[in-house]
Amino acid sequence: MISERTVKDTELDKVLDIIRSSALSPEGREKIAPDLVTFDRSVIEKRAGKIEEYLNLLSGKAPDPFPPVSDIFAYAETTHADLPGESVYRAGEFLHSYVAMLVFLEKESEIYSEDRELSDEILDSLDSDGIVYDDHPRLVPLIRKRDEIRAERVRYSSRFIAENRTLVQQSEAMFRNERVVIPIRSDQKRMPGCYISGTSSSGNTLFAEPAQLMTLNNEAVIAEERIRAEKARILHELSEKVRNMIPVLKKMLIRVIDFDFHYSFALWARRVKASHPREGRTLSLIAARHPLLGEKAVPISISLDEDVKALVLSGANAGGKTVTMKTIALFALLNQIAGYVPADPHSVLPLYSAVYTDIGDGQSILDAASTFSSHMKNIAFICRNIDQSALVILDELGSGTDPEEGAALSRSILSYFASHAALTCITSHYSQVKSFAYSEKGMMNASMEFDERSGMPTYRVLEGIPGDSHAIATAIRMRLPKEITDSASLALRGGDRSTERIIKALISKERTLDRKITELSLMKRKEERSAEELERKEKELEKKENELRREGVREINSYLRSTRKELEKLVMDVKTGNLTPEKTRKVKNYIKSVEEKKDEESSLIIEEEELPPDDTPFTPGDDVLCGASKSKGKVVAVNKNTITVSLENGLRMDIRRSMVRHAPGEEKRTSVEYGISSKKADYTIDLRGLTLEEAIARVADQIEAALLSSLPSFSIIHGYGDGILSRGIHEYLKKRREVKDYRFARPEDGGMGKTYVELF
């Protein structure tokens, strides 16, 4: 259960109000509440999974809103009377929205025809006030009959007045108490065959109904009553159908409430670009944006090591400390409600058994509580209820009292919570507290970055660095008189500013490291792109080479077909004695040489089909079979994705690793040896610990061995040191004509402590 204080401090209620505004039902809206916070990971994952499912469905037609139906259930359980027409209409509207919900969820198979039919019947019969439509099929003949009687009544009245102009008081009939009457003069009260139903207030006019008009009036009243009775029967029948369906409607409402919760969070998640963070034992928020700040939100990133139990956040006033603390607490709660927070999906959030906060000024006139005593009262409550899985957020800990006592109390409270809670985050301006966090195991400093040049906070969190309060800069920004700020600056220069100097030095180093990390990342991406481009070009060249070889084979086949007939004629001439045996041998040798040439060219084509996998590592000197044609060769060099092979016909090729297999019956060798030299070429030579003279001699031997082994490149590890080895080796490589290129290694492969060498 989350306390009201935590809900208020984190502004969770305001965020939930925004989410509730998207709910489609009143009952679903009420369900979205702080008490949904759970410590059960399976519940959170289930909720997050449904929200993700609904996010994928939001591109379709939106479902319809649901009317309230809980009061209908209560009414039906407490009385046997017919349901009010308006309640019946709402039940029909609820069924209609339920069907639309299943369509949205792409679960049309779960729609029952009875539900759809009852919904259509209700909505086709009643208006939103629960009144039966006059065009209902059962009412149409009754209304037609009534209208005919009314028309006849009007015609008779007009005819009577026209025939008795001297007797009537007005030229038109009147409508009184749902009956048509004829206004006649008061002296005609004894008119035969007339029923006097009333008189005017002056007594000069009498309202009469001649016998025929009386009959028509009675028929009209009866016709109207029949219509009312039929409407009542229709409403009663619909009411009974709804009453009989109430158990089903209750089950539907449970599902609607569950749907409404996930649907509302899905709409909110799409709007604020929320994602599902990963589970972990420590907190890591990446590009976290407070949802109440909208487009003005500055992304916050902060990551803690697993052993950090307490975080001290410092920095300038109005620099974002409180917003950062609120964001941490709010995201912990949102994650444990729905599993979605407005942050990068690589963010990590642990599960907390409870979240306790002390943010803002709790001063109360009614309770006679000062700012400090209010804070202490709340912290005492937290101490009584805390456990090892709780998250504690304390803003301006120790403020509102003597600075020395406040700092001492802050250190003790921080130490207590660090050993009794999963994570404690506080904000503080006390130097003693920052120093304490710096020296204590399991505690970490962080600060809100402040731009000295502009005098403005950047709202960026600097991990591991305590922050300066920048009180004078803030006062200047708030337009305090210059006389005051100048005087304060002068007084501050006379005091101890060692902490500020340390902080500035740390910030400067942090920025330098950031720049270097960025540069290294850019270099890494550039190298990766170059490697990808090189691999692509190698594949294109290999494909082109195979195409050229195939073209050569096709040309030879064409040549054979075109010359075969002529050669056969020559052979025939030999058989018939037209050629000498010597010429015959020459012709046969010619045919044989051409066919051998064709076979040779065909063997060079490395077929594209994949061969059975060969997971045994390749090393230079291994006997291998290449391609589907199993052309024999020896491994010269092993590259990233290809193997350089010297084929038996003397051709040297780079072949994809998947197209090369070890030759059967051959033992794997670890090096290539030639009779003309005993030197061995290595892919990497380590020269650390050697003198420059010894290192250059080793490099010379390596170049000679590499050339003999057809090794196109190798690496030299010389280390960083003072640069003597690297400079000397580079000078030597520069003079060797066999060296095509040399350069320092990629940052992730050794950087300036290693050199790549390429040979012609």
User: DSSP helix count?
Assistant: 20
Average pLDDT over all residues? 82
Q: Supply the helix-strand structural class.
A: alpha/beta
User: Roughly what percent helix?
Assistant: 40-55%
Classify the beta-strand content into a percent band: 15-25%
Lateral arrangement of strands in the main beta sheet: 10-11-12-8-13-14
What are the low-pLDDT stretches, counting only 5+ consecutive residues below 50? 362-369, 606-610, 666-678
- Strand runs, count: 23
| Major sheet characteristics | 6 strands, mixed
Number of individual domains: 5
The Cα radius of gyration reads 47 Å
CA distance, first residue to last residue? 74 Å
How would you describe the shape?
Answer: flat
Q: What does this molecule look like?
A:
The chain is an alpha/beta fold. It folds into 5 domains: 38-180 and 208-272, no CATH class; 276-468, P-loop containing nucleotide triphosphate hydrolases (Rossmann fold, 3-Layer(aba) Sandwich), CATH 3.40.50.300; 528-598, no CATH class; 606-672, SH3 type barrels (Roll), CATH 2.30.30; 677-760, Ribosomal Protein S8, Chain: A, domain 1 (2-Layer Sandwich). 49% of the residues lie in helices and 15% in strands. The strands form 6 sheets. The protein has a 6-stranded mixed β-sheet, sandwiched between helices. Strands 18-17-16-15-19 form a 5-stranded antiparallel β-sheet. Helix 6 (85-104) crosses helix 9 (211-244) and helix 17 (498-575) runs antiparallel to helix 18.
